[in-house]
Amino acid sequence: MRPKPKEERTKGGIFLPDTAAKERPMEGEVMAIGPGRRTDDGKLVPMSVSPGEQVIFAKYAGTEFELDEGEFLILQEKDILGVVVEEA
């Protein structure tokens, strides 16, 4: 018999498996950005991040690919959870 994974229950009654608490967001540097996204009516919404910024994103977000310089990840801006800001 296999041991049952530990589950936690939230105040709202949702069961969270033990593995859910272990999933940590990833951090990386923005290398390049596109022009932005188009709305349904065709307007361009510019990107709110810039090359060189450190961002946090979900572990399984985006599409991985390799170039001669290394491994990269293509993300949509909606997959970015936050921008890391260093305080002086």
Summarize the structure in words.
The chain has 88 residues and is mainly beta. The protein has a domain at 23-83: 10 Kd Chaperonin, Protein Cpn10, Chain O. The protein contains 1 helix and 9 strands; from the N terminus they run E-E-H-E-E-E-E-E-E-E. The protein has one helix spanning 18-22; strands at residues 7-9, 15-17, 26-29, 37-38, 44-45, 54-57, 63-67, 70-74, 80-83. The strands form 4 sheets. A 3-stranded antiparallel beta sheet has the order 3-6-9, with no helix packed on it. A two-stranded antiparallel ribbon has the order 1-2. A hairpin with a 5-residue loop joins strand 4 and strand 5 (44-45). It is extended, with a radius of gyration of 18 Å. The chain starts with 6 loop residues before the first strand and ends in a 5-residue tail after the last strand. The model has no long low-confidence stretch (mean pLDDT 83).
Runs in which pLDDT lies below 50 for 5 or more consecutive residues are: none
In angstroms, what is the radius of gyration? 18 Å
> What distance separates the N and C termini?
54 Å
The gross shape turns out to be extended
The H-level CATH homologous superfamily of the domain at 23-83, spelled out, is: GroES chaperonin
Keywords:
single chain, 88 residues, mainly beta, 10 Kd Chaperonin, Protein Cpn10, Chain O, three-stranded antiparallel sheet, 1 helix, 9 strands, extended
